[in-house]
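Support request, please re-run this one:
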Amino acid sequence: MPTVVVVGDGQLARMMHTAAIELGLNTRVLAGAEDASAAQVFGEVQMGDYSNFNDLERAVEGANAVTFDHEHVPNEYAQALIDAGVNVEPRPHALIFAQDKLEQRTKLRSIGAPVPVFAPITSAADAHAFWDRVEGAVCLKASRGGYDGNGVWFPDTREKCAQLAQHLVDKGTPLYAERKIPFDRELSAMVARNRSGQVLSWPVVESVQDDGICRVAISPAPQLDSDLAAYCRDLAVRIATELDVTGVLAVELFQTGEGVVVNELAMRPHNTGHWTQEGSVTSQFEQHLRAVLDWPLGSTEPVAPVTVMVNTLGAEKDPAMPMRERVVEVMRRYPEAKVHLYGKNWRPGRKMGHVNITGEDYEQVRASAEDAAHFIVHAEWKGK
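Re-run finished. Output below.
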């Protein structure tokens, strides 16, 4: 069977490994620490630094496909591997649009995708000019490196905007600004595409955020107009095709009164797709592996009317009850709940795992999933 190398040692790689086991694949992970989430479970672990080309080259030896659980591998390294005959997916010419948000905005605008008004920021004067252009509705963003709400700023005065921009530029932060979008909710349209060009999409989900971190994903997005849902799925397919993405692509969207605007892209399995583990015929993790091997993609049809995923984020205080006991209590109360843990030590706000529940009734499924996740985090039932 083929060998797949995953660069990156987080929970996404860990869950790819689970799918790889079921497919009978040989897997290897390039990990930065022996106790990292993925390093705990992979059969073959190569220790090293993804930003060191020698480590990267050694880790991918003999691979039929190389993929990532993050977007931070230097593109020149990925291209050097391709030039040496290694099958790297997604490829650098696509991955750049997940690595660099200014490049992403420019490319999406060029293909007619809905994006906010934006501009590169290299000085206080640029910030002043953009503030005036959008009448103060400014969001400053680091074009590289930000995630889970990091690298995003909302200055509340023209002078603060200029001062902050100059400070960030002086620190060497690559920066751009975009119009702050007043939105009703956040959606995620996810697709997978293989090298042969086959593309399949999952139902559009609603993503509920806390402090920039996805906390809940609901599939399908409740009360989403069918025409708008079809538009979102078609948009994600078009973006995957135009950008030549291989693997899973998440297109995060803001829903407004006029339609949708693209917020972010991720070219890998994504938090808003964890529901697919129990809620879809083919999970995002299996689909990603199929795609990077250029195998036929699996059905993305849901297996139940509703699936709700709730992240278990570390509480301010770690409960005295051991995690294994919390999991058992959740199983006892909610036998329909599927608990996924990432093997991570407690830290406030850290993604420790998630809970999936599928069912018929949205309100009941969500309440149960929220309660189960709350107990995993706090060792007490929600509302007590």
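The two ends are 51 Å apart (CA to CA). The CA atoms of residues 46 and 222 lie 43 Å apart.
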